[in-house]
Specification:
two-stranded antiparallel ribbon; 235 residues; single chain; 72% helix; globular; mainly alpha
């Protein structure tokens, strides 16, 4: 929590001395249209991942079940970790620095810088530095999502939209379906090893659906927001 406070202070200092503005330019004050956009943004990854992961589990005949050993304390700790990590990353990559870049070098260049930085950052957080193929894969999938998150900030004019999309994804993927290095969480597969074995084609298709189709769905939503509202301005 102290780290988030430090981030906010640094963000305020950067905005104050570079652009002579304050933290409100990050969209902390929202209107009703922004609120609706944020709520929908939160649930898009939830719905997608439920359909995607449950679909895969049915195909391999290893459906999910409630973790009988899961406790409320474990859920609380995991949820706090995911929430704080999402806020932390959004303040760095979609906060003051992105806003300043948009003002200084233009929107498209700023979005690309944010996306590339987000991809490189995940080399370290995912422990793949020095491994060429994993580095390329991690960079590609995280840079794509980094661009989508940055685009959502640019279109909505509030950091809460990328936070919502990011949180909806991480919470569902990591906590609801236990798909991370955090260990078994709320739901776990019925079997450790899938009864139905899958081949390269299946794995390729599911990878494309996950890492290409999902960002494309979010992009469609953001494009819809842009066309319908032009630019959602806080009241």
């Amino acid at each position: 929590m102290a780290g988030l406070i430090v981030e906010l202070i640094i963000s305020w200092v950067l905005l104050k001395f570079i652009l002579h503005q304050n933290l409100l330019v990050l969209g902390f004050k929202i209107n009703s249209k922004q609120l609706i956009a944020i709520i929908i943004g939160l649930f898009i990854p939830v719905v997608f991942l439920v359909i995607y992961l449950v679909g895969i589990s049915l195909w391999v005949k290893s459906t999910y079940r409630l973790n009988p050993l899961y406790t409320f304390a474990a859920f609380k700790n995991a949820s706090s970790y995911v929430l704080i990590s999402v806020i932390y990353e959004e303040l760095i990559f979609r906060g003051a620095l992105l806003y300043i870049l948009i003002k200084k070098i233009g929107t498209q260049k700023a979005l690309l810088v944010s996306a590339i930085s987000f991809g490189i950052y995940h080399w370290f957080t995912m422990g793949v530095l020095g491994q060429v193929v994993p580095m390329l894969f991690v960079f590609t999938i995280t840079a794509i999502m980094g661009y989508i998150f940055a685009l959502s900030f640019s279109i909505s004019r509030t950091i809460f939209l990328p936070m919502a999309i990011h949180l909806g994804y991480n919470f569902t993927f990591m906590i609801v379906f236990s798909r991370s290095n955090m260990g078994e969480q709320l739901l776990i597969p019925m079997f450790k090893n899938d009864p139905v074995k899958t081949g390269v084609v299946f794995q390729t298709v599911t990878t494309v659906i996950h890492y290409i189709i999902f960002p494309f769905i979010v992009w469609l939503y953001l494009n819809y927001l842009k066309k319908r509202t032009a630019s959602i301005q806080p009241t």
